[in-house]
Structures are given as C-alpha cells and as structure tokens.
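Technical annex, item 7. During the second reporting period the consortium partners agreed on a shared format for inverse folding records so that results from different sites could be compared directly. Each record opens with the tokenized structure and is followed by the designed sequence. A conforming record, contributed by the partner at site C, is shown below for reference.
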C-alpha cells in the first residue's frame, strides 16, 4: 500500500496522492496531509551526486507513491527545463555570513515557479490516472506571486481553466502588471476590494459551497487549487531544501550529516512547512527560523502559543507576506496535536468564530525546532542596504525580512551554524522599494523604468519576465467587491 492522504479535519477518508492533488482541498475544508511522513530511502550522501531533477525525483517519489517512475520523471523533465535561466535551477549565493538559496530563476522570477512549473503536469497525469474527463478549474487567491506563477503554468493547458483573485492595491505594480497582461483564453484575473485574507477566505467559501459545486459538476467541471494548500504544490518545495543541503556539502561548507539552519520569509506558511517536511525526511536541520514582516501573527504565535488574527492589517514592502491567516499552519498544528482531527477541528472552529485559538503546553513542545521573529519596514530597508554594501548583492524585501530576522537570531543565540536563507523573489519584482532602500529611487520614473537603474547597480541583466511586460497589453481589468467573487467565477465559467 502506498502513502495515503487524509484531511486534517477528518481522518476517515483516505486518498492516494493523485486524488488529493486533483481535489486540492478536502470536502470538509481541511487540508490533505500524509498519514505518516516518509523518510529518505537512500543515504544522505547520495544526494551530493544528483542534479536538481534527480533530487526532485528521489524526494517527490516518497510522497507521490501512486505515480509511476516514468510518470513522475516526465513531470519533472517538463517542469525544470529551459524555463529556468540556470541549469542549477536553485543556486546558492554566499552573502552576509549566510547562503541565499535563489528560488527566482523561473519564468515569473519568484519561488512559486519552483512548484507551479510542475503542478500542471502532476494534475494532468493525475487526471489521466483517475479517468477524470471533467475540465479542471484552478481557483486561487494570491498575495502577489502565486497568481502569476499559476497563470504561467496553466496558460493554454488543455482541459483546464484558471481564475486568480488578488487584492487590488495590495501587490507591487510589477506583480500586478505581470498578472493583468497574462495571455491564454483559459485565464482570468480579478482584483478585489479587500486584502489577501479576504480573497483567500472568499475562495475557500466557493470551494466549500456544495450547491455551487453541484452546478459545476453538472457542467462537466471540477475545482482544484494552485495554492500551497494543494499537496501537489507543497511536495515539490521540499526538493530545494534537500538540494541546498547537498550543495553545501559539495562546496565543502559542511560535512555530510552536519546540521544547518533554514530561514524562510513566511506568510501562508507553506514554504517553511516544506522545510519542516524536509527535516522529517531526515535532512539534518537544527533550527527553522520563521521570519515575519509587520503582520507578525506567526511571531506572536511562536512566542505565546496563541494564534490571533484580530489585529491591524499592514500593507508593507513585502506584500506576499501581508497575511494574517496562514493556511498551511493547519498542517503543522495537526501534527503537534498528535494527528488528531477532532482537536484540530476545534481549534479551526475557534479561529473561524473568535479569530484566535491557543495551543496546549504539550503542543508547544512540538514547536521547539522553530524560532520566530519579525522585521519592521525600516529594518527591512536597512538590511537591503547593508547586504548590498557588504557584498554587492541585491536582495528583494521578502528576502531582506528573512536576512534581518536571521541577524536577530544570531544576536540572541550566538548560533553560527551554516544557514540557508530562502531568497523568494527577484529584486526586479520590487524595484521601487529596493531602489529606495539603496537611496537610488527616482520618483519621476515608473517601477518598470527603474529596472534599468537596478540592472546597472546590481550588475544583473533585466530578467525576461520584466522585458516581456514592458509592452504587453492589459487583458484583465475587472475589480470587484468580495461578495461578488462567486458570481464572477460563475460568469467566467458560463454557469
């Protein structure tokens, strides 16, 4: 029997990986988790002989056990190809006494490409394996990067449609331009008058609307998700932490078996959860450093054991982290609650009704491998400047939040363990804030125009993703109220 998946809120229904990927989210609103986390089936030193694709295969096969070797290798080959501007896929760069894992070398220059390049291929394969003839409708909310990466991944893919909601005014100008210029007759991008949490809640409500789903199925369509709530989005992200570790070994930074720390700028908790899964596989990880911006709901949670979204929402220079409801935290809470769906469901009910919950002292014991902190806007900008001045290396605001929090961790603990910092986006996606931090901003220039200046300063060529949108026509102009989201979905799907 291969690895099976259950909902965090109901342990009864068991699905194989391909069916969990197709559903995206469980019928009861829970997230799919493996019934047990697997472990490496080969020596850790073996990974040092592998390139990124081979690493991906040997990591992902542990989770996606109903995919044949041929199926999984075909998905990996189709995903990690010339869309990435380096054969390394995820190179490491040393700067500021840490190792920046560059996850932005894909088509949309953000870490979401790492998983969303493969998710469409996993979904198509899963549909074929399960004789699903329905059109798959990808419905997702984005805080900035998931949207474009998902749109690029599913653009013109036969048998699919994709609808992306984003908070109007809550993403960077370049992030928005990337989305609203998206081609493909099967794509739809809609701005909402609200924040990401409201967009994400609206999407979950549509997923959980039984009558709407019945209309959808009668029309030969079914929903799935491209957010990291989909296990098919989360599993590929585990790969790059294993790859980063083996890169450090190959480069002679550490010996095989030596522990590392991993620092992740965190919003929806998926990226750091992937690092936690890597640790459970057997990767020698000492500390998982969870970095928040001024929306520091996760910092407060790790400090107090209380998750409380009842607070002011801040729009920051790191918009992909402007989140107060970190959906993927549910998977971690389920684990530290002893894989108890009843206990988990009670906490999620409290979150829904009161906006907060508190975990038990016993559950807090399960969080000892995490460290949480946050960086305010001034600290973020200062870190961008400091890293550039010390190493001539330019980082984006999200990565700067992680670097600033890492500095705080070292100051507090004195721990100098080799540390990987997840660099989640190219600075070219956030030119205005990066140039302001470097005191090189020209208010007369647009964000797009500033990319020329940033290229000169960083000595990095402007990425094709930016060049492409300079003259691309705007194709998506809808901006709606939150209450209109379901009607907008029905309209695009012709229901």
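Designed sequence (site C submission):
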């Amino acid at each position: 029997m291969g690895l099976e998946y259950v909902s965090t809120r109901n342990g009864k229904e068991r699905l194989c990986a391909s069916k969990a990927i197709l559903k995206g989210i469980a019928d009861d609103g829970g997230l799919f988790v493996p019934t047990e986390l697997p472990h490496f089936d080969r020596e850790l030193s073996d990974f040092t002989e592998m390139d990124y694709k081979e690493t991906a295969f040997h990591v992902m096969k542990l989770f996606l056990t109903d995919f044949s070797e041929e199926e999984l290798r075909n998905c990996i080959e189709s995903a990690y190809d010339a869309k990435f501007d380096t054969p390394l896929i995820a190179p490491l760069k040393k700067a500021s006494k840490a190792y920046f894992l560059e996850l932005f070398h894909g088509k949309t220059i953000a870490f979401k490409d790492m998983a969303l390049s493969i998710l469409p291929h996993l979904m198509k394969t899963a549909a074929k394996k399960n004789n699903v003839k329905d059109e798959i409708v990808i419905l997702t909310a984005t805080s900035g990067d998931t949207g474009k990466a998902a749109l690029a991944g599913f653009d013109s893919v036969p048998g699919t449609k994709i609808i992306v909601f984003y908070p109007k005014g809550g993403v960077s100008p370049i992030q928005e331009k990337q989305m609203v210029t998206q081609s493909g007759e099967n794509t739809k991008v809609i701005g909402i008058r609200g924040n990401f949490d409201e967009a994400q809640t609206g999407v979950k409500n549509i997923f959980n609307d039984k009558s709407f789903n019945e209309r959808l199925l009668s029309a030969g369509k079914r929903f799935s998700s491209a957010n990291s709530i989909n296990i098919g989005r989360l599993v590929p992200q585990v790969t790059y932490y294993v790859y980063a570790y083996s890169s450090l070994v190959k480069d002679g930074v550490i010996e095989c078996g030596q522990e590392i720390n991993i620092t992740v700028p965190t919003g929806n908790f998926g990226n750091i959860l992937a690092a936690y899964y890597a640790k459970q596989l057997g990767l020698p990880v000492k500390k998982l450093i969870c970095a928040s911006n001024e929306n520091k709901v996760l910092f407060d949670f790790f400090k107090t054991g209380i998750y409380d979204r009842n607070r002011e929402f801040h729009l920051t220079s790191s918009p992909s982290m402007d989140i107060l409801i970190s959906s993927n935290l549910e998977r971690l809470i389920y684990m530290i609650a002893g894989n108890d769906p009843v206990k988990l469901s009670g906490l999620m009910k409290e979150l829904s009704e009161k906006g907060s919950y508190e975990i038990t002292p016993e559950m807090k014991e399960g969080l000892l491998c995490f460290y949480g902190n946050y960086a305010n806007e001034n600290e973020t900008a200062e870190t961008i400047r400091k890293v550039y001045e010390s190493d001539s290396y330019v980082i984006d605001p999200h990565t700067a939040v992680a670097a600033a929090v890492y500095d705080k961790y070292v100051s507090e603990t004195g721990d100098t363990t080799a540390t990987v910092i997840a660099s989640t986006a190219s600075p070219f996606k956030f030119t205005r804030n990066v140039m302001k931090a470097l005191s090189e901003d020209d208010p007369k220039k647009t964000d797009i125009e500033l990319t020329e200046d940033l290229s000169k300063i960083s000595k990095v060529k402007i990425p094709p993703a930016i060049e492409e949108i300079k003259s691309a026509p705007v194709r998506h102009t809808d901006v709606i109220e939150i209450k209109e989201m379901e009607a907008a979905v029905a309209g695009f799907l012709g229901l």
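The two ends are 40 Å apart (CA to CA). The chain has a mean pLDDT of 95. All partners now use this format for quarterly exchanges.
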